[in-house]
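Co-fold these.
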Amino acid sequence: MNLSRFVFSAVLLLSLGAHGVLGAEETTGSGVETAIMAVSETSEPASIQNLAQLVTKAAEAAGTAQDSANWVWILLAAFLVMFMQPGFAMLEAGLTRSKNAGNIMMKNLMDFSIGSIAYFVIGFGIMFGADKLGLFGSDGFLLSAANTAGKEGMWQYAFWMFQVVFAATAATIVSGAMAERTKFVGYLVYSVCITMFVYPVVGHWIWGGGWLSTLETPMVDFAGSTVVHSVGGWLALCGALVLGPRLGKYGPNGESKAILGHNMPLAALGVFILWFAWFGFNAGSTTEASQSIGLISVTTNLAAAAGAIGAMITVWIKEKKPDPSMSLNGVLAGLVAITAGCANVSPGAAIAIGFIAGILVVFSVEFIDQVLHVDDPVGAISVHGVCGAWGTLAVGLFASKEFGGIAGLFNGGGLALLKSQLLGVVTVFVWCMVLGTLLFLAIKYTIGLRVSKEDELRGLDITEHGVESYGGFQIFTTD
Amino acid sequence: MKLIIAYIQPQRLTQIKEALAKAGICKMSVTNALGCGQQMGYEENYRGVKLSVNLLKKVRLEIAVTEEYLKKTVDIILEAANTGSIGDGKIFVLELAECYRIRTREKGKVAIG
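Predicted complex below.
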């Protein structure tokens, strides 16, 4: 009852925003015209003054309405992005074994909780504080720029809320690649470090006024293919490399063995949740209630759909069956890839970007598993790292003046944008690999990063948390 | 007294149960089982990696019968479990030394029936 009321009011607010505010310029324009007509037809010359007052009032009203819509939109989007946390948690739990499900819930719960505090205390300041050398921000720690005195200060609260859920998304990506063998306390330490420092620095470079945003042709990463997803993906690679594969994942001759996930419906639910929440992630990144959120939602949805189809076709041809978990990865591959360019490309280009990401993710998962022998149970490195890099580069190819004001290679913009995109992809890769490797090695040689062999075999639910996730639960089939 | 143990294809359980019930045999125990035989398993594919499944899912049926019900029961299972393909399962018949009904402490033929 309460829930439906809340949803109803949210929808009402949104539609008010859409009707009354998104078209603010036009409606105030025509409103003023009507007012002028009414005044000039009916009243005496003295009403010129009234007219001026009317115009000022109308402009003020439009401004306030736009502000309110901005607040509602950025927070609604933030709440949607927060919902990516259960999405990742369900996906990761579904694609791993039942004996570790509770541990996975705890990791996802705690990286959001710890990440929120770490980002409040330090991360946000490094990301959006006053720029130093183009490399990091230097004030605004503990949300000190926010206050309840005026509009600017109030906005900081809403803006922080939107940014913290992004930081937590970057953090939680790593969890999947390190699943089923990571020491819980080691993971907690990692969570603090990424949300406090590793992620905010990259965020500052691209979104916070840092050097990648002040290039001659600034890098375009609208909602964070690189800032959020590649950072998460490359750190996942470092983590999985330092940890080593799960016991029994590779045979004596290096042949890859399948370790089945325990709940495909749960994994699918996670992916559907992520797809849903991604509309907040991309369309919310306007950080204002602008008309472009329609286009962004369309490109986001089309890329996800094309990613699913691309991955399904690829795995169907390669392995003779349309593998469910790979198709689910395809959805995420498309979403990650369109995140950078969702406001800068045409719907057609979005389909191309998503479809290629879907193909790419299948080859990448198999390459990382079977050739590199890096054990990534959920495919996080391929989905977020590889497809994040692809999506960022794709902006340099597919960007169109008509949509975001900048043209890429295929739309007559030459190589300038592509070069900036490449520079961003490469420097972020190097930053994450160096810091990530140091961080995980430091954890490994101090508090420890991996559980003992016995604990791993018994399952992390019992050994790390002292409780089973599925006590008293048994599937019994008779048909 | 005999104990019949049958390993059957899981999807045949309903038919067997119905056929037995029709003949007045309605006391049985059913458990899930894993096993391998001539069927030789099959291959699954998970995220691009081949996975050979050797132990297949089967259902284990246990029925304790008196001599007069033995042939009838076995015949019904033979009939209802048969699909004509490898993997249909096996029936074992064992001597049953004694049988007690816990509630009444009856034993022997009375306890079985």
